[in-house]
Amino acid sequence: MEIYLPIADLPVNVFLILGMGIAVGFISGMFGIGGGFLMTPLLIFVGIAPAVAVASVSTHIAASSCSGAIAYWRRNAIDVPLALMLLAGGILGTMSGVWLFTKLRSVDQLDLVIGLSYVTLLTTVGALMILESVRAVRRSRQGQPPVPRRPGSHAWFHGLPFKLRFKRSKIYVSAIPVWAIGFIIGFLGAVMGIGGGFILVPMLIYFLRVPTVTVIGTSLVLQLVTMASATVLHATTNQLVDAVLALMLMTGGVIGAQFGARAGQKLSGEWLRLLLGMLVLAVGLRFATQLVVTPSDPYSIRVVEVLR
Amino acid sequence: MIRRLTAILAVVTAFAAASAPAAAEWLVTSLSKHRIQVTSNFGGEDLVLFGSVERDAATIPRRGGYDIVVTVTGPRKTFVTRRKERRLGIWINVDSREFDGTPTFLAVLTNRPVDQIASEDVRRRLKIGLDYQSLPQQNGANVADVVPEDAFRKAFIRINVQHQLYQESANAVTFLTPNLFRAAIPLPASVPVGTYAIDVKLLADGALIARTTSAFEVIKAGFEQIVADTAHQQPFLYGLITALMALLTGWLASVVFRRD
């Protein structure tokens, strides 16, 4: 069954898009991530313009992180003050991201920038995750606790001013790294069409030492707000959000996420991180080959948009 | 007696044809539809053009038969064609040409291959075939059409042909009788919205005899139109509604799949 997308201006198979939503939803439910880094490339692969894909996926992630955030809210696993502080940076990051996105589109190097940022970000994060989880798996094999004790030493940014106490997470940190992390996530989300969960969670754990109890719920709140505002901003500045496409993706996504979450509970944390790391690395390498391998056609055409 | 009559008739027809050009053939065409609606289940459509070669008693018969060239031109937009090259190991866009006011859709439909219909010279003059359509390029401050062999021009046409937005078909026009023809205009699902011009040329023995024009439009209709219009005219409202839709879907999912 084909349906014509009003903004992307092309017909797509409803079941293909729903299926992609379910598949990515499954993975996102399993690992507790938004799945934007998988969804955006998939949409580009089926022929949707990269700009429309990035903008519409932000709506999809807003929906999936909303259902996740509600679930964590019921369990009281969200650190609201920390989420608000991250958001302060996040909104600013999203605004700069959408601004840069618009600029890059006008000089027509958006594809290259999206490609390069995917390669650098995904291969680095993927490789780090694999290294870390392999170490953890090895430790648990040797009968040691899988997570090493938190080192007592302080990194340089722990000495920064504007210290704040977050009671729910039991941490006492400067507001500056919190804002910076929020800004980075909001920025990347707007430019690359990713929620940033797979980077945000490690950042919160390693840099801010947020405990596991609150880390996922808090990161979901940040993703929810940045992606919802990215939707509004992309719609207002670039008019690229395809509501029909987004609705199909999120319908598939929320269904897939339920099954993914159940599957995820059967695996231990280290193995989950190892699998996720390999997935992230694979997508990164896929983008790398695309940049390096000789294209089938060196020429490409594009309509020149009238920028307002 | 009969021989003499034929001779007289031939002289009369020849005289009539020479003295009154109005006695030559003219074209009458009719389109199956003048408005194509792009709705949510739009998957492309075939438009049919019927035409008749009209002639009066004075028209001389053509021994070689007629040829029909139907050129359909879609709404014009500015395109940029880019060329990638390997730089520092990765493929990046290095060179580009801007094509100003270029048709987003172009179909050249004929009853036989264009090179059999007319000589290269005539084809160039009458713009018959994809090779001889004018696709002016902007290079710096100059705007000019380039030779058909230009690499950017060829790539531009090739990519559009791949997407079925540019087509050249030598069997899209069929003659039902020697004077009655039918042309199928295949519009792919990705057909751009706008006004389309149809130019029908009648040729015989490699020369243009008659010409007529027609038009149709492609519009978004129903739900597609409402969504597209809202997105472009009320972008903030559209974004807000879309974001709210996302939150609602998320909330619904958390209610439906609640397990505690």
Explain how this protein is built.
The complex is a heterodimer of chains A (308) and B (260). Chain A has 10 helices and 5 strands. Chain A has helices at residues 14-31, 36-45, 50-74, 80-107, 110-141, 175-192, 197-206, 212-237, 243-264, 269-292; strands at residues 2-5, 10-13, 163-166, 171-174, 299-303. In chain A, helix 2 runs antiparallel to helix 3 (50-74) and helix 4 runs parallel beside helix 8 (212-237). Chain A starts with a strand and ends in a 5-residue tail after the last strand. Chain B has 260 residues and is α+β, with helices and mostly antiparallel strands. Chain B is built from 6 helices and 14 strands. In chain B, the strands form 3 sheets. Chain B has a 6-stranded mixed β-sheet. Chain B is globular and about 85 Å long. Residues 11-21 of chain B have low confidence and may be disordered. At the A-B interface, strand 1, helix 3, helix 8, helix 9 and strand 5 of A face strand 5, strand 6, helix 4, helix 5 and helix 6 of B.
